[in-house]
Design brief:
Length: 313
């Protein structure tokens, strides 16, 4: 009887993540204009929503840790940063010891940048440099990290849906510095509204990709994206508008102790077909996380996890 081989480690799947545990979570009124995934709740006089979000982040971190993913958790006790639970928008890390800081479209989201996160990275990982793009905010140019971009670390492509949060010039600067090829496209939801972040419709793992192809309005560009992902050896799975609305694209591949996992919300997992799950499970273990309160803010599991692509000290 042949032994089951462990999937090889992949540059696409980090083994460590940064998470922010919010104490005053709520929907962000500044981001509701262009985030159609966001749901406005009623008045939360007793803080039930904030308490539920706190518990969801805590439970998600514990589950990831049980699967062998290193989780660095920071507390956000302030009142001015309602979206702090989504740190992947303000920084990213890259092999070779590189860290990028990003220009954020909404003023209260700029307050999420915190030096203690960067100091932890320097303490535990080899950080060679920090490239800070936040100065572009003064020029009205925004690029909200790995929300605005979905990065193929293997084939060196930065996929980006055009929006007010993804400026093509800022994207070009990032790609020049970090050696990625930009692949910009337009993406609309089922009602014709532009999708605000690329990572709600697209997930790239080592051996497969999940993408809301029906959202990409230009057919030639859509075919080009499928061809590019397929040529890298990945199985490309199409997500319906309904699956995208259920955050099926907002997933992330991580390296666990024994194998790679796909972290996504329970809602997202439930929306996948049996065939899609079977393809994913050929190389990853599905790890659904209960985050219904967090999803009220218009983001899900991928947004909650800032992957650490750095070498440990």
């Amino acid at each position: 009887m042949n032994a089951i081989r462990k999937p090889r480690r992949s540059v696409q799947a980090p083994s460590s993540v940064v998470m922010i545990r919010p104490h005053s979570f709520r929907s962000n009124p500044e981001t509701s204009e262009d985030n159609a995934f966001q749901k406005q709740g009623g008045e939360d006089t007793d803080g039930r929503i904030a308490k539920a979000a706190y518990k969801e982040v805590t439970a998600a971190a514990e589950t990831l840790s049980q699967h062998g993913v290193t989780t660095h958790i920071f507390e956000d006790e302030g009142q001015a940063t309602p979206d702090s639970v989504f740190p992947n928008n303000w920084f990213s890390t890259h092999p070779g010891g590189h860290v990028a800081l990003y220009p954020m479209a909404m003023k209260n989201r700029r307050l999420e940048r915190r030096s203690d996160v960067l100091e932890l990275l320097k303490q535990h990982y080899r950080v060679q440099d920090i490239i800070d793009y936040s100065g572009l905010e003064a020029d009205g140019m925004f690029l909200e990290g790995t929300g605005a971009m979905v990065l193929d670390h293997v084939d060196r492509v930065a996929y980006a849906a055009r929006s007010k949060r993804t400026d093509p010039v800022a994207l070009e600067r990032f790609c020049t510095h970090f050696n990625y090829e930009p692949m910009v496209f337009d993406a609309l939801d089922a009602t014709g509204v532009a999708i605000y972040h690329t990572n709600v419709l697209m997930c790239i793992a080592t051996d497969f990709a999940l993408i809301g192809l029906d959202s990409i309005s230009n057919r030639a560009r859509r075919d080009e994206i499928v061809d590019r992902l397929s040529r890298s050896g990945r199985e490309v799975m199409t997500l319906t508008h309904e699956q995208v609305a259920n955050f099926a694209g907002n997933a992330i591949e991580l390296q666990g102790a024994d194998n790679r996992i796909l972290a996504l919300s329970s809602r997202a997992s439930a929306s996948l077909t049996d065939k899609q799950k079977a393809i994913i499970e050929q190389s990853c273990t599905l790890v659904p996380l209960e985050v219904p309160t967090i999803e009220l803010a218009g983001g899900s599991v991928r947004c909650m996890l800032a992957g650490v692509h750095l070498v440990s000290r």
